[in-house]
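haha ok so turns out i had the wrong file open the whole time. this is the CORRECT one, sorry everyone. sequence first:
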Amino acid sequence: MTRRALAYVIAAGAFLLDRVTKVAIDRLVPLWDTRVVIPGFFNIVHTENAAAAFSLFAGIASGWRRFFLIGSSATAAVLLSVLLWRDGTRAVGSRKLSAGLALILGGAVGNLYDRAIPGTVTDFVELYAGSFHWPAFNVADSAISIGAGLVLLDLLIAKKAPQKG
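then structure:
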């Protein structure tokens, strides 16, 4: 399998895992309900977020917010697809970069689907310790975060090619 094909398989896998988990939460956990998994650390919750991460843009009128979020997510998905396509044509390159871009693409498409079809993004993972509480998130958000970490790691440890001349 080529690196390009593998990257698109990773993106599709992230998208499918995101869809499967969100459908399961929608069917098995009533909206706004909480299921304690590890007391004091991890809950499954069923929340719906019409805004972006951490309720960013929540104060914008819902029609404009949805238009903006769908447009920016679609633009990101197209740009990531182009980057993956171009990255796959290089004879050498970082697998971390390809995997990171693929995870970001899969996560972006997962949340784009939610914004376009039902109109809200299902979040269900809730982490907390004492008074520290992380906002609820989902598989797409995790894929985006892990992907961004891989891209950053690739940038930090990239070796400069020797200059000719």
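The chain has a mean pLDDT of 87.
again sry for the mixup
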